[in-house]
Amino acid sequence: MSARYQLSGTTAVEISAGIESGIRTGALAPGAALPPVRALAADLGVSPATVARAYQELRQRGLLVTAGRHGTRVRPRPPVAARRSALRPPPLPGARDLSRGEPDRRLLPPLGPHLAALAADTGPSVSYSDAGVLPELAEVARARLHADGVPAGELTITGGALDGIERLLGAHLRPGDAVAVEDPGWANLLDLVAALGLRPIGVPVDDEGPMVAGVAAALAAGARALVVTSRAQNPTGSAVSAERAEALRALLAGRRDLLLIEDDHAAELARVPLHPLAGATASWAFLRSVSKPFGPDLRLAVLVGDETTVARVAGRTRVGAGWVSTVLQRLVLALWSDPAVDELVRRAAQSYEQRRGGLLTALAEHGLRAHGRSGINVWLPVPDETSAVTALRDAGWAVAPGALYRIAAAPAVRVTISSLHTDDLTPLAAALAHAANPTPPPGFPT
What we know:
- The chain has 446 residues and is an alpha/beta fold.
- Helices cover 39% and strands 15% of the residues.
- Strands 4-11-10-9-8-5-6-7 form an eight-stranded mixed sheet, with helices on both faces.
- Strand 8, helix 9 and strand 9 (259-263) form a beta-alpha-beta unit.
- The chain is globular.
- The protein starts with 11 loop residues before the first helix and ends in a 10-residue tail after the last helix.
- The model is unreliable at 84-89 (pLDDT under 50).
């Protein structure tokens, strides 16, 4: 904890408010350690139970996390708006940033021509009573999903994949309920689960997706929802194979007590076949967003599922945000309908595959087995994340520590390949090999 920020308060409410204020102002940075319960209680002259209640309330709201022997810390991305000074600092000057998990901007389709065409043909403004899912967008979306074997009867639109997942969890679960999530898995989802007051159960992942035994264990532990990434899993690049999909469908068949959520965020960028689980359970939803192939600023995802689930999401949207902008829907429809855009996305997918495969091959030449079956990330197991990230930083490379994505999985680092050039692969692989197997310091032989 920063020595400049002193916690205060005599009640649990006052203590928790003080901690939240510190997070909001940046005095308590993401990952900052808080004092042990008894130590802070002694400093404030209150009972340990009072401090414990304050910490518990902040954990339930997703601001704090208990890190075992590392104590209680501020979450890496707590759900409270912070000042800009508290945002993640940039990499060291001159370093290559491979930590962000974003697509290559150079490979995104240009939006200008389609926006200009929309501006020239805007028509009358949409009224509150007429807004909603555009029928023509729904028709094209259903056709694209059907082509991939996804049943797409009931359909609605959300403001991106994470918005859809939040609405699905909120419609089916209550604080304290357990959610089975991939481990390692998407950091944003882990943060969202914490912010909703839900309890995550980690499901081990291999190159073919969530492991069947892990899903079975999560179900036995009382999981009420299961979130699966279909392809380009973040951070490992795993993709659900045909064999794994068949085994998972058999395990989940007919369950009426489980909400199944599939996230196909890579969509057109994924160059491995889709093997959906859609319909395996009574309550299910399949999400496909447009941000990865067409641009992060396009906050739109198509959500299909069983009638009740889709109706709950659509109904909650109607009494809240109302609808996803029809201007945005028309833009996405125009992108989907342009053969030139399809070709750009195809080339981007091919480029990512070449860069990802090239890095995996270069690492294999150093005797390292990394993971990255699909998508824009490579997951490299390491003995110690802190030393690995530090060694890479000193070598001029910024990568993401695996701790952001793990619950109980082994240490690793995540490398985003979207901005790499062919000439980068050899030096990067050498730096990663050194970071994963550092030369021991000189000293007495053991």
